[in-house]
């Protein structure tokens, strides 16, 4: 399916009022070239895995799908192609500027804050979100809204990070690098209400909501210099540079040294675990 997406003509179409200037409280902004780059690297890292899990849930033409936190729109685009002309995709985001650039007749791009605003109830065969709930202090009510959007028999697929379980261990694997900036980055996120281990709890969360046929998979890889993962680490840390240095977690020199280390030929580090959990509404 991915090759088809590359052939589609993308043009700017706004659905409803243009809300691209709305500020958010999220740690990472959805605006500007940096956001575009981050979305691209996330797509390179995880889209194939996301698509595999959605396909395993039996997605078919005519399905009604909800993509929460659609970001750059790569998965929303794939869903539009997959469900076809008889299907429907609702893609939401607190800042949907990139979703508004997609041109699919079966796509609705909507400004929506999953933390506080309701979703259509009992309408969707599939609800998907990737790297959304981890960042929300209101994550439990957000998940409840997503589950309530499922129709009977519908599937939810949630992908969230566990950034604490898998850590570099140079004593065992000398090639793995332990970056000081990684710990500082985690401290800043934790102080802002990010749950760095939320992905691991997802199967239990879905069970608590009464879902059945629950399953989960955790994946990790080694990121090397020049990889999408290493670039993502750099862009993310650069976005929080002032917070990291301002809080005294690292000096300017220490921060710059780690940013330079990411580009060195022998750089290797384990990725965070990405947990994918799924469940079906009875």
Would you write up a description of this structure?
This protein has 282 residues and is of the alpha/beta class. It has one domain: Rossmann fold (3-Layer(aba) Sandwich), CATH 3.40.50. The chain has helices spanning 2-7, 32-56, 74-83, 139-148, 180-191, 202-208, 228-239, 241-246, 252-261; strands at 64-68, 88-93, 107-111, 124-130, 150-162, 212-219, 222-224, 268-270, 273-280. It has a seven-stranded mixed sheet, sandwiched between helices. A two-stranded antiparallel ribbon has the order 7-8. Strand 1, helix 3 (74-83) and strand 2 form a beta-alpha-beta unit. Helix 2 crosses helix 7. The longest helix has 25 residues, at 32-56. The radius of gyration is 19 Å and the shape is globular. Residues 1-24 have low confidence and may be disordered.
Concise account of the structure shown:
With 282 residues, this protein is α/β, with parallel strands linked by helices. 35% of the residues lie in helices and 21% in strands. The protein is globular and about 55 Å long.
Keywords:
282 residues; alpha/beta; Rossmann fold; two-stranded antiparallel sheet; 9 helices; 35% helix; globular
